[in-house]
Every structure is written in structure tokens, then in C-alpha cells.
């Protein structure tokens, strides 16, 4: 039976075909909450929340298995009609995998919208310390580690254990007090599982449906060469970083591109 609890309602009002937003590496759907409020009225918006994030499921380490599960959930939640998919970062990769599965099953995907999504290359995982630094940066919404975080990690070995890190982070005050060592540990399990999946997936097979990719101008464009898999992909670049495009003046710019894609007949 499909685990429909993975579907999080962000905006339920409206009669248009819903937009389904796939979580990034954190596993949380709530990065799309601001977007859901800015999109034109009439479009319901739902998010996918990962197994293991704020629930008792075990995190899933295989992205193809996760895409299989989400495709099953999506078809159970919306049994018929066209599908509109969006995903930021890892979510864009998962949305691409879901779109391939839906079209292979004979379903119509009207939109595939990716936001600053890297195209993975199979390689070994970085050392545990580097993964932990990346996790804390992600929790802080930063591209680079601030000096306080660099000082915290300076003398730790590559195989430092998560418990040691999270206790130190809790004491440092780098994150809001609700992010204690226990909460960080649970969220790190999800983050690490998804990162493991990203480093191990070999993306094969193209997708020729309507697709858009919005990239931040301060991200590494060479890491996002999706056109070799989607020759008809329409690309946009907006000012900002991987995280900042979801904030401040950048969010309305991002929202308008997404809204135009949803509205345009050229995008389905």
C-alpha cells in the first residue's frame, strides 16, 4: 500500500492540476512553503516528505528505489490526469526520475521543473567530517562554512563521529536552540542516506517531455549539464546562490519563471 503520508499539503485550494514538489537532500517539503504562497491562486501545491524525516520510516539510500516509491504514491494520490512535477537540488533529480517512470507507464507529464539541480556522477562518498560540515551548512542555509564552523571542525579527524559533532554544534549556538543534538542526529540520518544515493546513482535514459531548469548564477554551471539528457530543456539563470534564490527579492523572480512554465502552452 502506498505511503500517502509522504504527501504534505502546502496549499490545497484551487481547481487546477496540482503541482507536486519533491524534497531536497534534507528530506523536508517545507522549503517550498514560500513558493506555494506566491504562485497564482487556483493551483494546489503538495510536497513530498522523505521516509525518516519527522516519521518512523527508515531513510532510503537508493534514489531509484525512492523514485519508484514516489511514483507509486503519486499515482495513488492522483490516479489520472496530467502530472506537474518540481524539485530543488536533489529534488530536481528525483522529479526527473519520477517523470521518466510516469511517461514509461503511459502517463502525461505536463511539467518537469528543476531548480538548481546537480547532475550526479558516480563516485565514493567524501569523508564523514566533510559530509557533516555540508550538513551543518545546509541547516544554516549557507554555501560556505562561516569562520565559527571552520573553527569548530579545525582539529577533528576525517572519521569524527556525528554524536561528537552535534554535541559541539548544540553547545556552540550556531543553530537555533530547538536544533539539539538529538534532532540533528535524526535529520542527519536522512541527509546522509540521500547523499549516499546521489553519489551512487548512474542517471541514464533521456526525458523528452516539457522541462525547465532554473539555475542560480553563483552555482557551478558545469555540475548541472542536463541538456545532454534533455535536449529540449529550457534553462534560466537568476541572481543568487543555491539557497538564497528561495529568499528575499530572488524568490518572486524564481516564482515568476515557475508560474510562466505552469501557464505556458509551450510547456504543456
Automatic annotation (TrEMBL):
UniProt-listed Gene3D superfamilies: alpha/beta hydrolase
One of the Pfam families matching this protein, by short name: Thioesterase
Ranges of residues in domain Thioesterase TesA-like: 20-262
Protein name in UniProt: Non-ribosomal peptide synthetase
Record organism: Streptomyces venezuelae
Lineage: Bacteria, Bacillati, Actinomycetota, Actinomycetes, Kitasatosporales
Amino acid at each position: 500500500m502506498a505511503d500517502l503520508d509522504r504527501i504534505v499539503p502546502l496549499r490545497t485550494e484551487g481547481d487546477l492540476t496540482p503541482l507536486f514538489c519533491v524534497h531536497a537532500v534534507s528530506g523536508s517539503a517545507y522549503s517550498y512553503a514560500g513558493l506555494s504562497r506566491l504562485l497564482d491562486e487556483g493551483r494546489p501545491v503538495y510536497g513530498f516528505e522523505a521516509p525518516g524525516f519527522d516519521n518512523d520510516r527508515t531513510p532510503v539510500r537508493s534514489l531509484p528505489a525512492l523514485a519508484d516509491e514516489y511514483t507509486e504514491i503519486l499515482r495513488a494520490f492522483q490516479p489520472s490526469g496530467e502530472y506537474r512535477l518540481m524539485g530543488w537540488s536533489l529534488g530536481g533529480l528525483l522529479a526527473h526520475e519520477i517523470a521518466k517512470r510516469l511517461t514509461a507507464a503511459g502517463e502525461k507529464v505536463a511539467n518537469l521543473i528543476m531548480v538548481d539541480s546537480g547532475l550526479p556522477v558516480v563516485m565514493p562518498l567524501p569523508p564523514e567530517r566533510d559530509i557533516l560540515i555540508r550538513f551543518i551548512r545546509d541547516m544554516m542555509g549557507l554555501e560556505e562554512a562561516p569562520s565559527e564552523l571552520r573553527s569548530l571542525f579545525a582539529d577533528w579527524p576525517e572519521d569524527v563521529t556525528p554524536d561528537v559533532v552535534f554535541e559541539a554544534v548544540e553547545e556552540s549556538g550556531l543553530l537555533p536552540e530547538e536544533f539539539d543534538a538529538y534532532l540533528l542526529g535524526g535529520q542527519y540520518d536522512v541527509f546522509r542516506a540521500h547523499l549516499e544515493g546521489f553519489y551512487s546513482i548512474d542517471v541514464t535514459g533521456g526525458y523528452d517531455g516539457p522541462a525547465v531548469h532554473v539555475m542560480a548564477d553563483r552555482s557551478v554551471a558545469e555540475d548541472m549539464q542536463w541538456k545532454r539528457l534533455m535536449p529540449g530543456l529550457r534553462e534560466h539563470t537568476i541572481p543568487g546562490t543555491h539557497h538564497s534564490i528561495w529568499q528575499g527579492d530572488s524568490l518572486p523572480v524564481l516564482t515568476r519563471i515557475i508560474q510562466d512554465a505552469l501557464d505556458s502552452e509551450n510547456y504543456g
